[in-house]
Specification:
single chain; alpha+beta; three-stranded antiparallel β-sheet; about 20% strand
Length: about 350
């Protein structure tokens, strides 16, 4: 497992078991099978060896095909079969820039994964090797930045995340109705006792508004209207999450609080343990309302209102425009600070505001 590789410790050996046509390895939910055609005459699981007794007359040939299959039953993400965009072509005098564009395109294609529930929906993993999986924030931002190359990546990303949108309140995974996940790992993630994440972990404050923003932007860039309309119920649920669940202490701002003690202490893009602190180095005490997240929430509400109005839901649109206006006024009243160099927005409000 990836988290075991990440620790740098040598992995424990895993003995194979013999099957009629080859070998199989099994560890919890992970099952890998090596099948051979034609099947070997003998299989020795103890040594992991396969034996054929063959005669090859002069001028003839013999071959066997070995197929290794990952039979992971928990919905392991897999590489996409093709990219949902056409490789960009650049003509300019600087050939090094052309090479840079080609390499960037190749790097992005290497991060493409397919949703096992619907392989036509592809998205970009957050990174390799430790984050080669579906993330909320990272996959959404990448899809948004690539909208000039088409909307298919955005569609796949939106749908993959929508399939896993929260439907219940679960403190262990931080799932809440309407919330978009932080990351998906079939076996979860455990780094000692300090960080223990379940397979589907929802500890993120910004993925939900960013999902709404991408839906609006993809619509503006030409995502087919019928595909947009299919996702409107998910958009409504995401909006309700911002209003009902995203505000941990009722002060009118989106904020996060790790309720498990074993999840991410900081749940925005600055998610290291010391990512949010005062100028004197004191760490912010939760709940924490990040500056940029209020901007995401405002943009999400305004964009969603435009979507709702375009699809004949004007009364709902009015509600979210008013919600965004109230958030804007609260932000201007609470976030602006000033020192001898002039005014600036604080990076966050902590428990003591």
């Amino acid at each position: 497992r990836m988290e075991e590789v990440r620790t740098g410790m040598p992995p424990r050996p895993l003995a194979p078991a013999a099957t009629a046509g080859g070998l199989t390895w099994s560890d919890g939910g992970l099952r890998v099978t090596l099948a051979c055609s034609p099947a070997p005459d003998a299989v020795d699981a103890a040594s992991g060896s396969l034996t054929w007794h063959i005669e090859v007359p002069p001028g003839s040939r013999w071959k066997t095909t070995l197929t290794c299959v990952n039979g992971e039953p928990n919905g392991l993400l897999r590489p996409a079969r093709s990219a949902p965009w056409t490789a960009p072509e650049l003509t300019c005098a600087d050939r090094s820039f052309q090479k840079w564009i080609r390499q960037a395109d190749a790097d992005l294609r290497a991060l493409l994964l397919a949703d096992p529930r619907e392989e036509s929906d592809v998205f970009l993993a957050a990174g390799a090797p430790w984050f080669l999986t579906l993330f909320g924030r990272d996959s959404l931002w990448a899809a948004r930045m690539l909208l000039p190359l088409g909307t298919r990546l955005a569609e796949g990303t939106l749908r993959a995340l929508a399939r896993r949108q929260g439907t219940r309140t679960d403190p262990g995974s931080e799932e809440q109705p309407g919330k978009i996940l932080h990351e998906f790992r079939p076996d979860g993630l455990r780094l000692g006792d300090a960080l223990v994440l379940p397979p589907v972990y929802y500890g993120t404050i910004d993925a939900t508004p960013l999902w709404l923003i991408l839906l609006h932007d993809a619509w503006r860039w030409g995502m087919p209207p019928e595909r947009v309309e299919e996702l409107l119920p998910k958009a409504r649920a995401a909006l309700e999450w911002m209003d009902r669940h995203g505000d941990a202490d009722g002060d009118g701002f989106l904020e996060y609080l790790d309720s498990t003690g074993r999840g991410l202490a900081n749940q925005g893009w600055k998610d290291s343990g010391d990512g949010v602190q005062s100028a004197d180095g004191v760490l912010a005490e939760p709940p924490v309302a990040l500056c940029e997240v209020q901007a995401y929430a405002h943009e999400a509400a305004v964009g969603a209102a435009a979507l709702l109005r375009a699809f004949g839901r004007g009364q709902e649109a009015d509600r979210w425009e008013e919600w965004a206006d109230r958030l804007r006024r609260r932000f201007r009243a609470r976030f602006w600070a000033e020192d001898d160099r002039g005014p600036y927005p604080a990076i966050a409000l902590d428990r003591d505001k």
